[in-house]
């Protein structure tokens, strides 16, 4: 566990849901993240319908749209040429899920009166967030309230809710007020660089509003990014008797207030549909009618039909993606929770990606990082390859801006992807741990390679992949140079470890650049030979000189890869091993994460890693290292790594598995698996950690099951942690769907879809076919 963290919360251990059985202001902020719903576009934090009257700083009632942002100039007290100019941050958009409840003259509030029963469940198989409670008002009136909500996977712009109130010991007035509240703002930045935007006050400005009977809509615009947004709701009240409806408007807050005389035991049911349409997707003039249409259609289908659709979507997902662990309930829950949140977070339209916190909170401002390609991509590639392709399409859509960025960085050709962004522009205001991470180019190339090897999708390669690979490969020639000894060096970059910055020859960067350069040259040669017309077209798009691929190969062949002969380990960079080792023994627990307690230069001066760096290369470029190499590198870097980044433990777990450190593999894995559920990094209230979540999946497949794809060939080397009875996971590979089940002393491979699949079990080549779809091996 992270040194400064302690678990704040524990839920009953159910494999398919998280459930809370009491309401607690202490964990409320965190619960809003954990119980968040999303569909890759809309994200609704798990805030209660009625609002929250608890202590300040214990809630953030946020609603987010993946990729919908405002931009703001970045103000540098000391500017310099080429620094990122503009930040983009994901906006908190109008809150459409508000429903207030009055019983006679008393307002329902979870913190007033008495909550007699309480249960809230987020179900991973239905995708529904349900809360059931019984409440007694101060004056002794009792009600049951059951509410359900869903953010529809099948309808990008839609969410749906149902709210049912039943008087339990009285006859009287019940008033339900549905709100659409546009007066929302984002968190303001504090001392933690990982949270908040520089903007204070509202970023969305009201242009128009519309309210009639059961319908409310707000049309707003962002000041700088210039986007229009329509947020709209439609409500429907069902009750045995008549109801009175009043429409209220207070600034940007629109309300439908329904009042009934309810009998004891008689349910009052409010159904509410909400949608968001922005000019990032459609022309501004279409947003209003599209919203009306979507809501009318939702009403015509009804809440139950949307719920059914959601369950079906999820059934298909779990059928492909489920990782089953027998023997550890806490872990099983953690894994399903992670998989579910990944699906909720990932953009599926080719225009959006997956942000570091998904759509669950404002940490890292909704930015996309290398987290996508190196951590999250494998999960989707092998579980839902269609989504993996969408993630790669997003990068293609950003190629133009990456070219522009390369020019700003004085590269006369090629493309440099931003370290962090929403719409494609570089948004990192701190370049030593931002733009300097040039490895982003190789990370993207790596994911294209992985994708191509697993799917053989020539269409993507020809339309998008080859051009990205070659344009980004050019940058290595742009920043690297041959030194006097003839080595190709890449200087002044930052590798994955953000506790070491602006170094020469970061091992990870150079090794990944080598892979990238070779792969780009291979792809160029393959297309040139097989489809010369296509090659000419792509080369034309980027004015590729015929000699360039050879230059790439030469640089790759002569790449500097720092190695310390005395220690027999790969050096993180040219200077890392000559620095003083951080004084871990005298660093108090509360000083972690170090980034919040020491000036960056103090950290940079020491041998101390925030996260896996060389050790990550051992995984991604597995075949380039012997087991002995891996063991020595792991032994050296583990003691100097703080895992202050949530991207670290999963990688250490995988390599520990491979080198036979089973105990450590398990411990590192457990840190990742329940990182958000147990809030071990102490900041999940600002959003889930999507990279770590996907790291859990890698921990099972790459770690315990030893899965690797080497030169396009799939292989496994399974082990079973002593704590588990067995585990099962599935892999989409080359059109087939394979199930791998690891039991004591035996692994069973089963072909679930497809005609045949070849792979290796340790050193043995196996083939599954329709006539022999199951094989077991010791
Ligand atoms: C890590 C980066 C990561 C970012 C977003 C930072 O703490 O050091 O590697 O990309 O978080 O998750």
Provide a brief overview of the structure.
With 778 residues, the protein is α+β, with helices and mostly antiparallel strands.
Chart the SSEs and their pairings.
Elements (H helix, E strand, L loop, with lengths): L16 E4 L4 H10 L2 E2 L3 E3 L18 E11 L12 E7 L2 E9 L2 E2 L6 E10 L5 E8 L5 E10 L6 E10 L4 E10 L22 E9 L2 E8 L5 E11 L4 E8 L2 E10 L5 E11 L8 H15 L1 H19 L2 E3 L2 H17 L25 H13 L1 H13 L1 H10 L30 H17 L2 H22 E3 L5 E3 L16 H24 L1 H10 L6 H10 L5 E2 L4 E2 L9 E2 L18 H5 L1 E2 L6 H7 L6 H11 L11 H10 L3 H12 L16 H15 L3 E3 L2 E4 L9 E8 L2 E8 L2 E8 L2 E6 L2 E6 L4 E4 L1
Parallel strand pairs: 24-25, 27-31
Antiparallel strand pairs: 1-8, 2-3, 3-4, 4-5, 6-7, 6-12, 8-9, 9-10, 10-11, 11-18, 12-17, 13-14, 14-15, 15-18, 16-17, 19-28, 20-21, 22-23, 26-27, 28-29, 29-30, 30-33, 31-32
Helix pairs in contact: 4-18, 5-6, 5-8, 5-18, 6-8, 6-9, 8-9, 8-10, 9-10, 9-12, 10-11, 10-12, 10-14, 14-16, 15-16, 16-17, 16-18, 17-18
Beta-D-glucopyranose binds next to loops.
């Amino acid at each position: 566990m992270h040194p400064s963290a302690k678990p704040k919360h524990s839920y009953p251990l159910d494999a398919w849901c998280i459930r809370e059985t009491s309401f607690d202001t202490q964990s409320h902020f965190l619960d809003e993240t954990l119980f968040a719903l999303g569909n890759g576009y809309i994200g609704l934090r798990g805030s209660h319908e009625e609002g929250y009257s608890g202590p300040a700083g214990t809630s953030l009632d946020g609603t987010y749209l993946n990729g919908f942002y405002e931009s703001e100039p970045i103000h540098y007290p000391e500017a310099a040429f080429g620094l990122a100019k503009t930040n983009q941050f994901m906006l908190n958009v109008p809150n459409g899920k508000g429903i207030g409840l009055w019983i006679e003259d008393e307002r329902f509030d979870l913190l007033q009166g008495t909550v007699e029963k309480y249960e809230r469940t987020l179900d991973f198989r239905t995708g529904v967030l349900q809360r059931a409670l019984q409440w007694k008002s101060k004056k002794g009136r009792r009600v049951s309230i059951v509410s359900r909500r869903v953010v529809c996977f099948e309808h990008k712009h839609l969410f749906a809710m149902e709210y049912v109130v039943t008087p339990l010991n009285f006859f009287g007035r019940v008033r339900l007020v549905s709100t659409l509240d546009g007066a929302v703002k984002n968190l303001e930045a504090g001392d933690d660089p990982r949270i908040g935007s520089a903007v204070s006050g509202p970023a969305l400005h009201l242009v128009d509003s519309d309210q009639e009977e059961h319908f409310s809509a707000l049309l707003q615009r962002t000041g700088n990014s210039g986007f229009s947004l329509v947020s709209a709701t439609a409500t429907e009240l069902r009750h045995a008797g008549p109801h009175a409806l009043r429409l209220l408007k207070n600034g940007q807050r629109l309300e439908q207030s329904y009042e009934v005389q309810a009998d004891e035991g008689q349910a009052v049911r409010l159904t509410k549909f909400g949608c968001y349409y922005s000019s990032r997707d459609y022309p501004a003039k279409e947003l209003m009618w599209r919203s009306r249409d979507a809501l009318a259609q939702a009403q015509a289908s009804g809440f139950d039909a949307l719920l059914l659709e959601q369950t079906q979507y999820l059934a298909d997902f779990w059928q492909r993606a489920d990782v089953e662990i027998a023997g550890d309930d806490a872990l099983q829950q953690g894994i399903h929770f992670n998989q579910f949140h990944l699906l909720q977070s990932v953009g599926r339209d080719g225009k959006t990606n997956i942000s570091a916190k998904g759509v669950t909170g404002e940490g890292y401002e909704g930015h996309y990082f290398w987290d996508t390609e190196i951590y999250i991509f494998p999960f989707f590639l092998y579980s839902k390859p269609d989504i993996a392709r969408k993630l790669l399409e997003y990068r293609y859509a950003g190629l133009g801006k990456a070219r522009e960025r390369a020019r700003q960085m004085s590269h006369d050709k090629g493309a440099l992807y931003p370290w962090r962004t929403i719409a494609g522009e570089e948004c990192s205001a701190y370049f030593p741990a931002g733009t300097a991470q040039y490895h982003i180019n190789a990370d993207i190339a790596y994911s294209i390679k992985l994708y191509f090897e697993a799917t053989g999708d020539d269409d993507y390669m020809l339309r998008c992949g080859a051009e990205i690979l070659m344009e980004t490969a050019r940058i290595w020639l742009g920043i690297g140079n041959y030194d006097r000894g003839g080595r190709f060096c890449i200087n002044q970059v930052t590798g994955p470890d953000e506790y070491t910055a602006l170094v020469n020859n970061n091992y990870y960067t150079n090794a990944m650049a080598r892979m990238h350069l070779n792969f780009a040259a291979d792809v160029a040669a393959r297309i040139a030979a097989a489809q010369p017309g296509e090659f000419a077209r792509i080369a034309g798009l980027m004015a590729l000189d015929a000699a360039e691929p050879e230059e790439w190969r030469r640089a790759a062949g002569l790449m500097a890869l720092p190695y310390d002969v005395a220690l027999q380990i790969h050096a993180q960079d040219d200077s890392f091993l000559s620095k003083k080792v951080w004084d871990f023994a005298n660093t108090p627990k509360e000083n972690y994460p170090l980034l919040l307690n020491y000036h960056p230069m103090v950290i940079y001066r020491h041998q101390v890693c925030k996260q896996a760096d060389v050790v990550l290369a051992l995984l991604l470029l597995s075949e380039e290292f012997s087991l002995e190499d891996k063991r020595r590198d792991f032994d050296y870097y583990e003691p100097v790594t703080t895992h202050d980044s949530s991207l670290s433990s999963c990688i250490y777990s995988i390599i520990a598995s491979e080198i036979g450190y089973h105990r450590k593999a398990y411990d590192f894995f457990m840190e990742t698996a329940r990182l958000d559920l147990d809030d071990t990094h102490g900041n999940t209230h600002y959003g889930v950690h999507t990279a770590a979540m996907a790291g859990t999946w890698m921990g099972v497949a790459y770690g315990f099951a030893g899965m690797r794809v080497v030169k396009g060939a799939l292989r496994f080397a399974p082990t079973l942690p002593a704590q588990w009875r067995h585990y099962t996971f599935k892999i989409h590979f080359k059109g087939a769907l394979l199930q791998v089940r690891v039991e004591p002393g035996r692994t069973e491979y089963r072909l679930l879809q497809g005609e045949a699949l070849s792979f290796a079990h340790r050193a043995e080549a196996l083939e599954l076919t329709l006539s022999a779809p199951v094989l077991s091996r010791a």
